[in-house]
């Protein structure tokens, strides 16, 4: 399956409206591929030291933002896989700040982070192509919230758009 519709209200907590409102009902796999290119183009257009510079004290650097996006997408993909396979146990949430701090993304070469992003996106597309519409609608629980794989997978490109916009406008 290369495409599937956006989730309906009730398939995810209202908090995620902020990300889902950034995507349109379009070909999902094409959107995911386009976002890989958009990110590569942005990083290529910047100076060599740009990836390590936060836009203000206490904020993440572009490399840390990218690492956060990669981690979040992996977690969302894992959750979507679990629910698509019928997992009934509640999955835990995660706190993004310790993840970024403990990952030490500043020490990871920028090119490696970009390759990692691309590889994880391609793995996401590969997974989605194996899922049926029915599997995309199996509900699961994250913390106390019910979500479907469909919602989790669509949150990924919306979350990316949110952070790409920040990288473009504040850095």
UniProtKB/TrEMBL annotation:
Cross-referenced SUPFAM superfamilies: DinB/YfiT-like putative metalloenzymes
Ranges where the DinB-like domain occurs: 32-165
InterPro entries membership: DinB-like, DinB/YfiT-like
Highest taxon in the source lineage: Bacteria
One Pfam family it belongs to: DinB_2
Name of the protein in question: DinB family protein
Lineage, uppermost ranks: Bacteria, Pseudomonadati, Bacteroidota, Cytophagia, Cytophagales
């Amino acid at each position: 399956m290369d495409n599937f519709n956006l989730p309906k209200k009730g398939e995810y907590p209202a908090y995620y409206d902020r990300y889902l409102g950034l995507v349109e009902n379009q070909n999902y796999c094409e959107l995911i591929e386009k976002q890989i290119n958009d990110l590569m183009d942005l990083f290529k257009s910047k100076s060599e030291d740009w990836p390590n510079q936060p836009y203000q004290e206490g904020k993440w650097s572009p490399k840390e933002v990218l690492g956060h996006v990669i981690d979040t997408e992996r977690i969302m993909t894992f959750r979507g896989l679990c629910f698509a396979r019928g997992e009934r146990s509640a999955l835990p949430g995660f706190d993004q700040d310790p993840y970024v701090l403990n990952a030490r993304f500043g020490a990871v070469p920028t090119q490696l982070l970009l390759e990692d992003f691309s590889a994880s996106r391609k793995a996401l597309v590969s997974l989605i192509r194996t899922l049926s519409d029915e599997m995309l609608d199996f509900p699961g629980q994250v913390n106390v919230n019910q979500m479907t794989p469909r919602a989790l997978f669509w949150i990924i490109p919306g979350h990316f758009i949110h952070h790409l916009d920040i990288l473009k406008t504040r850095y």
